[in-house]
Amino acid sequence: MALFWRGLIILPLLFVYASSHFIYTKRHFDKPEVVGFKDLDYLHGDGGGFLSGPIEADDGVKASKTVVEAESDDDDNDDNDGDKKSKKKNEKKNKKEKKNSKKDKKYDESFHTLPVESLVNEKGGDGNTDDSSQLVGYNVVTAKTTFKGSWELFVENSGVSAMHVVLLPNINQALIFDATVWKVSKLKLPGPPCRHVEGTNEEDCFAHSILLDVETAHIRPLRLNYDTWCSSGALDINGRLVSTGGYNNGSDTVRILDLCDTCEWQEFPGALGNGRWYATQVTLADGKFVVFGGRDFPTYEFVPPEGQKNTINEVINFPFLKETHDPVENNLYPFVFLSTDGNLFIFANNRSVLLNTHTHTIIHEFPMLPGGARNYPSSGCASLLPIMLKPNEDRKSIPAEVLVCGGTPHDAYTKADLQRPKVFLPGNTDCARIDITKRNGKWKIQNMPSARLLGDMVVLPTGDVLLVNGAKTGSAGWDDARDPNLHPVLYKFQTDGTGSKFTVLNPSNIPRMYHSSFAVLPDAKILIAGSNTNPGYLDDALFPTEVRVEKFSPHYLDPNLGMFQQEIIVENSNNQVKYGQKFTVQIRGNVEIDQQKLQVTIYSPPFVTHGVAMNQRLIQLGIVEFNKNVAINTNNIVLQAPINSNIAPPGYYMLFVNYNGIPCRRSMWVRILP
After folding, report:
1. φ, ψ for residue 45, nearest 5 deg
2. Between 20 and 30 A from 168 (CA), which of 21, 102, 299, 592?
3. Is 32 buried (19+), middle (13-18) or exposed (0-12) by CB count in 10 A?
4. Using CA atoms, how far apart are residues 471 and 440, in angstroms rounded to an integer?
């Protein structure tokens, strides 16, 4: 009898176990079966007047707004038998590895060697298979490491909180500035003249802009007269910063900072036809600038030459920015990128288009991205992914992809800023990727390890992406966010399909919330600065105004892999090139070079503010020749410069030579001539 009752108890338990393990799909967090899924409690925020209709998945199956696409482009080649066998083998390997891993670990946090044979051949919109898999160095073997990065405090007090940051070419100084509106900072100007506060009898003797030497930490304060609060900018073909817009008397101002030890800001008030507060500045293929949007101005205009002024006749109406305007905006600081076909990709709120700036017409609209808003004040982040070139490049169409991560529900700002008591909604956990050169491009959505808003997206010298800074709940705005996201996350640009695209790295102990920023440095470290959730400089707030500056060493700076670092011999390398030109870079190192493990990239330093890295661009160059042992431990790499300015606008780039996935000791500044 006792056995009978035991059987009655045990049989249902066995049924539950069998059902959960064999009938229902197991959840694999590193290979989610429904990537982009959000639970029902999250869906209430997907409003704001934008209908997130059905999105077509790659296999042609209609998906709901929360089921967009299962997995990424890593699975596009599962059609042939060889790939299926390989996939089954990898699945068995993964299951074995999972048994040995900690049960509570949701994401694969290890790094894997990436074999050259693991390339993904994705069919383009014309039905032709992209031949990029045949390129030597197109997908590079990288060394294994379990190093999760390290942090160092670089400057205790920069004097100015880094609302805006850009690394200036050749002089290797980070330009940092915030706003003049508060009339205070942590650094006084060295002497007169002080700034006269417009409309008052006050004088402001505080610095609101500095140059920070990224090697010595020397600080030089700069004078500003016209308010730069929430402005925009870009480097011109001579390496100067051209900054646009700001607040009040600075909203229609153009500013220029040249490259010299004694240079000061030149300011040209009234140069713009509209005020540009929270606007985005983009560099065109000819080196000219266009500035988009700004509060109350759904327009764009070309930035006038130095000393000239636009009239209202030079301003172009852009209804797209009206159409994407929520009751609380969510379309300021739009994401704008120059595509490889010369058109501009513009993303605002949850919609994106291609704009021809010659005809001022929208030539294509991409599918709506579901799941919330992405632009200020929802403040996700985005970047153009690496542009991959081959030796002797001759393709008419060069693929280009954009990655958009994080953000918030449409009503996050309303609840955090306008409602009392404040309510801090969870931020988005998704990352969406799309090929902007395909007219049938679709969003491929995956989940990050954690929610992120107010974050920054850093394209690393290797082509991988670092997600850093920001919060997990709330919105942009004064005291409108909570739960700092202290952990950087690595997004692998290319994978072999066996593991997660995301790896959680070691955290900082400094919250970097609203108004944080970054810069990629010549030694491949990342400068991290800023964070000010307060209308002024406050030390006693929940998140005090942050003037400390850190450096983060990513995974590739594992001390155990230092033997792979190469040194660029600048004096024997070409640092000025023309489009399509073959040029030589000489390297020296301590290991025998295997060309399959060699990668050369050029990186355009962005103007960074509010999670928007304006004009950030990384291009992998084709290796035409590799000449070994031209001297002891010395090799020559013959490269081809980008073939046209749609791929790489003229100006300064940081050239990195990466070996085995490890960047060189110091990049070299290269100028692409117009």
Report:
1. -85, -5
2. 299
3. middle
4. 34
Max Cα separation, the chain? Answer: 99
Q: What is the DSSP letter of 414?
A: I
In a 3-state reduction of DSSP, which class is residue 464? coil
Residue 304 near residue 316, CB atoms below 8 Å: no
**Tens-digit pLDDT profile for residues 404-441:** 999 999 999 999 999 999 999 999 999 999 999 999 99
Residue whose structure tokens are 């929940």: 542
Two structure tokens written together for 607: 């103007």
Q: Choose among 195, 284, 287, 297: nearest CA to 252.
A: 297
The answer to whether 399 and 646 are in contact (CB under 8 A) is: no
Q: Where are the domains of the chain?
A: 150-557, 564-672
CATH superfamily of 150-557: Galactose oxidase/kelch, beta-propeller (2.130.10.80)
User: The CATH number of 564-672 is which of 2.60.40.10, 2.40.50.100, 3.40.50.12370, 3.30.70.2760?
Assistant: 2.60.40.10
Alpha-carbon dihedral sign for residues 604, 563, 498, 132: positive
Q: Is the pLDDT of residue 72 over 60?
A: no
What are the backbone dihedrals phi and psi of residue 172, each rounded to the nearest 5 degrees, phi first? 50, 50
> What is the distance between the terminal CA atoms of the chain, rounded to a whole angstrom?
92
Instruction: Name the region of 349 (left: φ>0; alpha: ψ -120 to 50; beta: rest).
Output: left
pLDDT tens, position by position, 156-181: 999 999 999 999 999 999 999 999 99
Number of H helices and E strands in the chain, helices first, is 5, 47
DSSP label at residue 144: -
What dihedral do alpha carbons 290, 291, 297, 298 form, nearest 10°? 60
Please list, in sequence order, all residues whose beta carbon lies within 8 angstroms of the beta carbon of residue 23, skipping any fewer than 6 positions away. Answer: none
Residue 171 to residue 551: CA distance in whole angstroms: 18
Q: Token digits for 195?
A: 């700034």
pLDDT, residue 615, reads 98
Torsion of CA 201, 207, 208, 214, to 10 degrees: 170
Q: What's the CA gap between 499 and 112, in Å, rounded?
A: 8
Instruction: Please confirm whether the linkage preceding 193 is cis (ω < 30° from 0).
Output: yes
Query: 138: pLDDT confidence band, cut at 50, 70 and 90?
Result: low
Decide: 158 and 620 in contact? Cβ < 8 Å: no
pTM of the model: 0.81
Q: Which of 507, 511, 505, 506 is nearest to 548 (CA)?
A: 511
